[in-house]
Amino acid sequence: MQIKLTVLTKIENIRKTTFYFIHNESKTILPIEFDNLTDKSIEDAYIRTLKALNVKMESINLYLYLENIYYVYLKINAEGTLMDINISINNALHILELNPTTEVYIENEILLQEGIKITKELIEESLGN
User: Fold this and answer.
1) Which of 17, 58, 68, 70 is the most exposed place for a label (fewest CB within 10 A)?
2) Which residue has the higher pLDDT, 8 or 128?
3) How far apart are alpha carbons 28 and 26 in whole angstroms?
4) 76-112 as b/e, with b when 16 or more CB fall inside 10 Å?
5) What is the CATH number of the domain that holds 72?
């Protein structure tokens, strides 16, 4: 089952950008980083092509995590027909940067395995209490 994530924040440095997503119900944070040094022209081409075809981006869906790789598809709406385009996590996150209102979904099992559950104990430990 896929559940909706919200972008909590994004932290950038010269080499990497890390998106922090949160699932509010379970109070679980999922950090995903990508390399800033990749060519962003592919993502720009995605966006320009979709806009030229009057296609709406519905969501970014993380459907599999295997051997440290997230597998993602971009759900688009072309004149009422929903379609999934398989893209890399880097491309998906760059697209999210350009279109921050795009919804993000993840398989619940991935969030359970890779997410960080925020608990009172974790916060106290982080604060050194």
Assistant:
1) 68
2) 8
3) 5
4) beeeeeeeeeebbbbbbbbbbbeeeebebbbbeebbe
5) 3.10.690.10
Q: Which helix (H) or strand (E) holds 39?
A: none
- The H-assigned helical ranges of the chain are 41-52, 89-98, 108-114, 120-127
Is pLDDT of 42 > 70?
no
Q: How far apart are CA 74 and CA 92, in angstroms?
A: 7
Locate 103 and state its tokens: 């919804």
Residues 6+ apart with CB under 8 A from 19: 7, 9, 10, 31, 32, 33, 34, 93, 96
Structurally, the chain folds into a number of domains equal to 1
Structural domain including 96 reads 2-127
pLDDT digits (tens, 9 = 90+) for 50-84: 778 788 889 999 999 999 999 999 999 988 899 99
43 is written with which tokens?
């993502």
Angstrom CA distances, 22 to 66, 79, 111, 117, stand at 21, 31, 10, 10
Cα–Cα distance between 105 and 21 in angstroms, integer? 10
